[in-house]
Design a protein that fits this description.
By secondary structure, this protein is mainly β. Among the domains are: 198 residues, Sandwich (lipopolysaccharide transport protein A fold); 161 residues, no CATH class. The protein is built from 3 helices and 45 strands. The protein has a 26-stranded antiparallel barrel. Strands 1, 2, 3, 4, 5, 6, 7, 8, 9, 10, 11, 12 and 13 form a 13-stranded antiparallel sheet that branches. A two-stranded antiparallel ribbon has the order 20-21. A hairpin with a 2-residue loop joins β22 and β23. The longest helix is centred in the last third of the chain and has 9 residues. The protein is elongated. It starts with 24 loop residues before the first strand and ends with a helix. Belongs to the LptD family. It comes from Thiomicrorhabdus lithotrophica. This is LPS-assembly protein LptD. It is found in: Cell outer membrane.
Length: 795
Amino acid sequence: MSNPESHFIMPKPSKNAQNVMVKRYFFKQLRRKTVLSIICSVSLTPYQAWSNDTNVNNLAIDNNLCAPALIAPQQIIPVKVKDAEAAPQNIEADSLLQPSKTQYLLQGNAVFKQPGLVVLSDEAIYDKNDKTAVFNGNVELHQPELTITADNARIDNQNETAVLNNTEYQMLPSRTHGKSKNIQLDQKSQQAALARASLTTCKVNSDQSVDWDLKFDELVINNETRRVVGKNTTLYFKDVPIFYTPYFDYPLDDRASGLLFPEVGSYKSLTQDSSNQYVKLPYYFNIAPNMDDTLTAIPMTQRGLALENEFRYITKQNAITHGATITLTGLQDQLTASEGIVSSDTSGNLIFGNKRSERWRASIEASQNWGHGFTSSLNWDEVSDESFFADIPVQNNLKTATQKRRNAQLNYKDGAFGAYIQLLSYLRLQNAAINYEKRPEIGVNYAKYVGDFDFDIDATVTDFVVPVSDHSKPEAIRLHTAPTLSYQIQNSFAHLKTTLVANQTQYNMRDNGFNPSTEDTISRFIPQFAVRGGLVFEKNIDFNKQSYIQTLEPEVQYLYTPYEDQSDIALFDTANRSLDFSNLFALNRFTGADRIGDTSQVATAITTKLLNPQGRQIAEAGIGQIAYLQDRKVTLTGTPETESVSDYFVKFGLNFNEWYFASTTQLDSQDQRLTNANTRIKWQQKNNMILMNHTLNNQGETTETEMLSVGGYTKINSTWDLGIYGSYDMRTQDFYETQLGLRYDSCCWAAEFIAEHTQLENGLYNDAIKVQFELKGLSSSKSKFKQALTKKLNF
């Protein structure tokens, strides 16, 4: 500080400087150096994803009830100016004394203000020679993003340092706060050193405790290197130490390296009556702004220690962008080393395989945009054995899976022309079916629009390969082209579309002894013709004092496909279509290209919709049926279909604010008996949610299946949430999977408990318990149960 005498007017003090009092004195200084600049932003936690959800500095206080109280009333802080030398400086007090020629004593509500800083205290002593200021009693230091309270403070403007004793600090706007024995600020080195410091994001309880806090012997914040270093750091939860590290280092701005919160759980494998326990201990490495790595140690009872490493990156250079997630897992399994790899057959009998200790999995998920119309994707997994995911708790959704799809694909798009090449495979797990793989498939597409005409051509070349040597399936290379010419007229009240398709297919069969045809080359040409039209009628209706628009939409399609004997062609990727109302108007009753169904048919449907004044659909109902003008000889079973009409297809849907309902059913045309159904229901109100999914396939046949899945999530009170999930096989009258989730979620911390019971094979079950813990401000994991619930039920 410079000499304040030339910048304010004050009564001349007496000779001994006794009792010189006025109501308030104002000190104004027009030129100065910055007294201090305090580092005030801290990021505490490593990031699980490329976001700033867990950055303490950016921690949003969405609910004021959860925000810690301010340690001092906020002050209006003067705005900083570019020219620090010209920045104004104000000092106020109830009284002013001048004990000596070089010192000034301000007593009663002393206030010091300068751009970016406000200091309050009971008294202040300023020494113009030493350029120091001492503040005593109820000291408050305010900056835009930081508040500090202290018993006393000393500011040395000449050396650009400050010392505050017995302090409490708070970072804004997150209100993260803590205490420190003292804080030493050094403006030259841009450092703040806190001795015996603590830090938390929790509200202070009535007994002056906090639910959790970090305590440091020493905490150094370096604003120049943008790093924070803590020594002898201990994490306390409910005043109980739960974690210690001698060195705690993280950045102020970027994601931070460090331990993530663990997951504790248990599971039961096929050969065990009691559960195994495991702990997942992840450590996060912040390698670069676009690159990170997470190493997780998973100690498991009986099996040993598994290590899992997940490496992620994303980068962009000019028009090229690419990113990937690479996961590697490995362990020396003590259990399989002694008893062998254990699996079960379709009857539930245990099969003991080779004894081995080395078990691993490798996974990569990647996507790229190479520019100039080229993109690519890769999703690939490999495992050491088919029982890996059933035994090792690293990917919960695969513990009962029999296979996992994997593929690599390169795409090209340039205007109306598109092309791709892909390799489609399956990771075989327990009891995996033998499926064809595409090694590779090449496809091209070209679309051209001229007025109301649309010309489209699709062509694919697919090499169908069986991935195992012990099989009896034919293999072939299939070339399929389907040029399509369409003419369409459409307006607000009607539409008409005529379509011509020329299906040309050729099979080059491999000589592996399982070719159903006597020919090595099989060719097939099947044309198709369809004409589809519909009308839209509207009327206004009033219901419950609101206006709506109701539509009535009749639709009809005639489809003709001539008969071509295709019994000598193997089924590579063809099956019956699944239940869907839109399949009434499909050009082929089969998926894939190995069967083109012969038909002369008329499909009719009528749909009504209810729209609100904004045009949002809130209800829908429809019914449709196909009338066949001739028998269908092309089938998957070889038995012709002679029915003159199809089953009835019915759809119904509701979409209100709280309710969502969608159902498609298939009714027998003779007795209206339900044969297939797919129904989904969702009810959600604030923090309460109920989801249901019911599927029925082939009722009354030997292949009948019927599953009912129900899940719910509710907030019991302000801190407790309860979730349940059950998947019930209505044909065998047995629960396939049940889950119970219980979550405690306070302003400061959260914990979630998940128990699950999953059927493996015929009476064999996998029991698992998972516990997840979260400290608000240090981590943010949200509810795993709630996320899994919506995914399981396809919502």
